[in-house]
Amino acid sequence: MRSPIGSIALAAAMIFAATSTQAFDETKYPDWSGQWRRPAGVGNQWDTSKPPRQGQAPLTAEYQAIYEANLKDQAAGGQGTDPTYTCIPDGMPRAMNVIFPMEIVIQPNITHIMIEYLSMLRRIYTDARDWPKNAEPSFMGYSIGRWIDEDGRGRYDVLEVETRNLKGPRSFDASGIPLHADNQTVVKERIYLDKVDSNVLHDEVTTIDNALTRPWTVTKNYHRERKAVWVEAICAEGNQHVRIGTENYMLSADGYLMPAKKDQAPPDLRYFKQTRK
Amino acid sequence: MLYRNSIGVVVLAAVFVTAVANARAHDETKYPDWSGQWLRTGGIQWDPSKPIGRGQQAPLTPEYQAIFEASLADQTAGGVGNDARYSCFPVGMPRLMSVIFPMEFIFAPKITYVLFENNMPRRIYTDGRSWPKDPEPTFAGYSIGKWIDEDGDSRFDVLEVETRYMKGPRTFEGTGLPLHKDNQTVVKEKFYLDKSNADILHDEITTIDHALTRPWTVTKNFRRERSPSWLENDCSEDNHHITIGKENYFLSADGYLMPAKKGQAPPDLRYFKQSLR
């Protein structure tokens, strides 16, 4: 439950903090330091409460058909509607799958979320700004947040975030659950520590998208590692996918181009001298 | 000439230890204001005071000068030489500090973060830790920093950083100006605001590397944008370089594989069915 008195007091504190970057009172904010990871045994699927590829996403008929075609393509060795094999960022909301660990750095005007993969960096503005006009869309989108003291103890405990202005292609997870090609996605999140175990962080993520028949809410859970070791996860390093035109091929272990699907045609080499073929 | 005021250092060292011991009492007034967005003031070459390529007059050993000359010759022929960035590998240290796209600093009590638009963050540990034993090497390396109050005004003004444990391949710049393949590079930096213009940040960078005959010091200068807009710069999003085996090819505007060099042979298609070739 939200305490109005606590909320008003902390709203005043937040306004003061927003006007003075040199007077950041960390004791007003929750301790989300350390490294946050997916819990052991949890897969890469969007809704982790359900098995992969059985998430029962509330897709429109059109996008359910796109998803089914994608699954068929993946079964044949293709990548379907998962665009990340070329090492483009997951984007939002998929970034919150946190395939590789995440760090959250809280400052008065901005909360940064750094994910150890593909330079995925979220800036969540908490300075009460409005949505920008004509901002360049991005995979991670533009995020505005608001700190809330729900339990009225004089310390923020919930970060509510809304993210807009996204670009594509994006999918919810590697199974290719699609988001709409219009990129009008809106993502709403509530991030808070578990009431019992402060080493567990929850993120209730609601996705509103024209590929869906209704807003789709899932809850992500992360476990804290207080003695963090950070490792670079570089997608381009060792990526065996080779995209030529609209086709995905693979690199063999011995460095030759090879088909990704049975009977896949080789690339068209029209721009090479015929005598060298 | 910068000088160190020993009394100021002792006083602030005590403050610093206290801050480290209590992460919840981070006193931002003890740190300089490096907020905002920092952009490079020069070109993309390593030493901004000299022309790119041979004009850098890098103090290379004869062996590595020959490697550099071969890289330049390959690039003249349409190749990429020693520069691994074409395949979207991180540029790593020290080249990260060429800041091709803008950067941001975040000061936390134990860590200074340096964020980039197109590379993974740097974490500079300022908690007095020792070098880790057997860390996983990374392109950005492992950085330990020390805040210093050089002018004795009770506020830190210089951040000294040493970076080790890098992996390769790395070069100083896009011309392929090489670092040694043994990856024993040590990078020492000294960051500070300009004395007369608080919107200019300097980074004196000394690189110690077995490809060099002596430590090589250059000074990078960055200018501040106080009302920043941040963009994503994702190398993989529109990368037209295609690596197959040891060869770099190019993707034409109409989506076909094409040679990157005059007379370049097409890829070996031995893994495709003969009837499809």
Report on this structure.
The complex is a heterodimer of chains A (277) and B (277). Chain A is an alpha+beta fold. Chain A has helices at 4-19, 61-75; strands spanning 35-37, 102-106, 110-115, 120-125, 142-148, 158-164, 186-193, 200-208, 216-225, 241-244, 247-251, 257-258. With 277 residues, chain B is of the alpha+beta class. Chain B has 2 domains: 6-225, no CATH class; 240-276, no CATH class. Chain B has helices at 6-21, 62-76; strands spanning 37-40, 103-107, 111-116, 122-125, 142-148, 158-164, 186-193, 200-208, 216-225, 241-244, 247-251, 257-258. In chain B, the strands form 2 sheets. A 9-stranded mixed sheet of chain B has the order 1-9-8-7-6-5-4-3-2, with helices on one face. In chain B, strands 10-11-12 form a 3-stranded antiparallel sheet, with no helix packed on it. The model of chain B is unreliable at 1-24 (pLDDT under 50). Chains A and B meet through strand 12 of A and strand 3, strand 10 and strand 12 of B.
Percent of residues in beta strands of chain B: 25-35%
The shape of chain B, in one word, is globular
Gyration radius of chain A, in Å = 22 Å
Largest sheet: spatial strand order of chain A: 1-9-8-7-6-5-4-3-2
Largest interface: A-B, 59 and 61 residues
Ranges of chain B where pLDDT stays below 50 over 5 or more residues in a row are 1-24
User: Major β-sheet of chain A, in short?
Assistant: 9 strands, mixed
Number of helices of chain B: 2
Kindly report the average pLDDT value of chain A: 89
Structural class of chain A: alpha+beta
- Straight-line distance between termini of chain B: 68 Å
Give helix and strand order of chain B, one letter per element, not per position: HEHEEEEEEEEEEE
Number of domains of chain B: 2
Structure classification of chain B: alpha+beta
